[in-house]
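It would be a great kindness if you could assist me with a short task in structural biology. The matter concerns a single protein, recorded as an amino acid sequence and a row of backbone structure tokens. The record follows directly beneath this note:
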Amino acid sequence: MDTLCILAIIIAILSIIGSFAIYLTFLRRKSGEKYTNKALSWLYDYLHFNGFVAEGLLKWLHLLSALFLTVFGFLALFTGRPAVFFLCALAGNALNRILYEFALLFVLLVRNVTEINRKLDKSDINNEDEKDYQFDPWNSIDKPDQPE
């Protein structure tokens, strides 16, 4: 058997053991418990997806692709290809911006929905003592008196 295959099997076994250890340590905690250590608190938030990485990554990728398109367009302009300049530096950057804005809309939508859920959960805790009221249109208060 190849050394790489043996190492892959060992790493797979250690990964399974490590994932169980992390699950039992961080993911089964009650939501009210907080870590005082900054590193453990960050790891807890990271494993519970309390902070989203996608928004920062999308912004960085947008900057990278915009810079590439702009520099490539200007290099094409200086080498005598003005059509490539207009396609890359102008139209390419406009299309790039629109596509990344659409991608960011989904990330912002998820962030707003999670924020709304957190607010609703807090209001549900505050209204726990109130009686659950379900509207029944057949037994409405505004219903006229019926003969018995």
Remarks:
- The chain is about 70% helix and 0% strand.
